[in-house]
């Protein structure tokens, strides 16, 4: 099962997106474990993450996260700001899972 972690500055707005992604999982018939956390807490979850999605507000950290975590096998991507703003959980889930 793919483990997806979303991070933003505080972890609040991404929690709403996680709910939408979980609804999309049911619709698409896929399984994943999804969580939203503040950027400052990611170290606690790095060993339990396959895909790391950054909220647009922390996109400036993408280079650092890619350099640090992609060599460890963690896919790192920035959530499209329009998809984020529209809370398009299905589109973000598909992007995370590569479908």
Give a quick precis of the structure.
The chain is of the alpha/beta class.
Q: Quote the beta fraction.
A: 15-25%
Shape category: globular
The appropriate CATH architecture is 3-Layer(aba) Sandwich
- The fourth-level CATH homologous superfamily is Response regulator
Question: From the helix content, strand content and strand pairing, which structural class follows?
Answer: alpha/beta
Question: Domains counted in the coordinates: how many?
Answer: 1
Strand order of the largest sheet: 2-1-3-4
Number of helices: 4
Main β-sheet description: 4 strands, parallel
End-to-end Cα distance: 15 Å
Instruction: Tell me the CATH topology.
Output: Rossmann fold
CATH class, please?
A: Alpha Beta
Task: Return the string of H and E elements.
Answer: EHEEHEHH
- Number-wise, the strands total 4
Mean pLDDT: 94
Helical content class: 25-40%
pLDDT under 50 segments (min length 5)? none
Radius of gyration: 12 Å
GO molecular function: kinase activity; protein-N(PI)-phosphohistidine-sugar phosphotransferase activity
Modified residues (Phosphocysteine): 8
Keywords: Kinase, Phosphoprotein, Phosphotransferase system, Sugar transport, Transferase, Transport
Protein name: PTS system cellobiose-specific IIB component
Please explain how this structure is put together.
It is a single chain. The protein has helices spanning 13-28, 62-69, 81-85, 89-97, and strands spanning 2-8, 32-38, 51-54, 75-78. By secondary structure, the chain is an alpha/beta fold. The protein has one domain: Response regulator (Rossmann fold). The longest helix is centred in the first third of the chain and has 16 residues, at 13-28.
């Amino acid at each position: 099962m793919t483990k997806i972690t979303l991070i933003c500055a505080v972890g609040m707005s991404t929690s709403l997106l996680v709910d939408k992604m979980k609804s999309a999982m049911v619709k698409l018939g896929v399984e994943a474990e999804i969580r939203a956390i503040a950027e400052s807490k990611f170290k606690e979850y790095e060993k339990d993450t396959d895909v790391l999605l950054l909220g647009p507000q922390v996109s400036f950290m993408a280079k650092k996260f890619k350099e640090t975590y992609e060599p460890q096998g963690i896919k790192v991507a920035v959530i499209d700001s329009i998809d984020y703003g529209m809370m398009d959980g299905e589109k973000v889930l598909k992007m995370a899972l590569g479908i």
